[in-house]
Write a structure and sequence with these properties.
By secondary structure, the chain is α/β, with parallel strands linked by helices. The protein has helices spanning 32-41, 63-69, 143-153, 177-183, 192-200, 210-219, 231-235, 242-249, 263-266, 281-287, 308-318, 330-336, and strands at residues 2-5, 14-18, 21-25, 45-50, 73-76, 86-88, 93-96, 99-105, 114-118, 121-125, 128-129, 132-133, 162-165, 175-176, 239-240, 256-259, 277-278, 298-302, 323-327. Strands 1-2-3-4-5-6 form a six-stranded mixed sheet, with no helix packed on it. A six-stranded mixed sheet has the order 7-8-9-10-13-14. It has a five-stranded parallel sheet with strand order 15-19-18-16-17. Bound molecules: fe (ii) ion.
């Protein structure tokens, strides 16, 4: 398997090639035309688009971009986006031209972070960087889990395994597992507790494009299709556990459950909360008048992983709805809790 780095910028994308088949890893939307041209020019068939996680610093593929590339988008099952064609989990194996790509779940930077192990190498996303690691202070981040993923999973790969990170801010291209084990200052000689403390003290500014990128990437909608709320307004929406939502639904005054996923997700694998009302995110603003009767009643907003619903909850909050809650962890958490679903 041939590995080529494509962008020559801080945000790295990779092209994997086996024979006439190719996979794109972490493509950046603004470079779509370049990728399409490259594939066409070399007569390559794009078989897979692999995302290492939901990115906060660049726009991922949109609905339109997906159509241009014509390949299925692969992400971890905890990814919030509705634009994923194939959800994978730890241990899953994908094939490219007959060669193996193994999924290693590495939560920490985001809950949906994965590394892709390829012959002789590993694409580590923002989990393991050259001499560093991805920040863990975004919603859903967890430095302890990241330490475990790197030290127990990635560092157990053979020392000569080539590391292909999703970022580098110092012009470096690759490293190896052996080098990172010995010299990465975040992990070398550090206990889990020391790592968690260190990551908690980084105090990094939020990336410039986080506001425009993260909610777009989580929802699959363009900023032109949905007026996304401010991060502070999202943080103000209380989250309820699945068990607590189930308890309230069984009470004398049950909340309205508002499901903001796409229609195909509502009737898809995860099903939906029985009795919930489907209103996809891009239709929410138009449907607000019809929800007017709920201004003073409780509304629980639901989506796949709890990210889109937090944004939708903030949109409702801004519109004057006073008792809006978010189902923490979305339908993934609801089904994991064994609560009833309808299809
Ligand atoms: Fe990232």
């Amino acid at each position: 398997m041939q590995v080529e780095e494509l962008n020559a910028t801080n945000c790295k994308s990779y092209l994997l090639v086996v024979g006439g088949e190719a996979a794109l890893v972490d493509p950046v939307r603004e470079r779509l035309a370049t990728y399409a041209q490259l594939l066409r020019g070399r007569g390559l068939r794009l078989a897979l688009v692999l995302e290492t996680h939901t990115h906060a610093d660049h726009l991922m593929l949109s609905r339109d971009a997906k159509e241009v590339l014509g390949a299925p988008v692969v992400m971890h099952r905890e990814s919030p986006s509705p634009l994923v064609d194939r959800h994978v989990q730890d241990g899953d194996v994908l094939l490219l031209g007959g060669e193996r790509i193994e999924v290693i779940h590495c939560p920490g930077h985001t809950p949906d972070s994965v590394s892709y192990r390829i012959p002789g190498g590993v694409l580590t996303g923002d989990t393991l960087l050259i001499g560093g690691s991805g920040r863990c202070d975004f919603p859903g981040g967890d430095a302890g889990k990241q330490y475990d993923a790197v030290t127990a999973r990635l560092f157990s790969l053979p020392d000569e395994t080539v590391v292909y990170p999703a970022h580098d801010y110092n012009g470096q291209t690759t490293s190896t597992i052996g080098t990172e084990k010995r010299t990465n200052p975040r992990f070398s000689g550090k206990t889990r507790g020391e790592y968690v403390a260190l990551m908690g003290e980084l105090g990094l500014p939020f990336p410039e494009k986080i506001q425009q990128s993260l909610q777009v990437n989580q929802s699959g909608f363009e900023a032109a299709e949905v007026t996304f709320p401010l991060v502070a307004d999202i943080a103000a929406i209380p989250a309820l556990s699945p068990a607590e939502v189930a308890r309230r639904l069984a009470s004398a005054a049950p909340p309205l459950v508002l499901d903001v996923r796409e229609p195909e997700e509502f009737v898809g694998d995860l099903g939906h909360v029985p009795g919930s009302l489907p209103v996809p995110m891009d239709a929410l603003a138009h449907r607000l008048p019809k929800l007017a009767g709920y201004v003073d009643r409780e509304i629980v907003v639901v989506c796949r992983a709890g990210a889109r619903s937090a944004s939708a909850g903030a949109i409702l909050g801004q519109a004057g709805f006073r008792h809006v809650k978010n189902l923490d962890g979305g339908m993934l958490a609801w089904t994991a809790a064994g609560l009833p679903v309808a299809h």
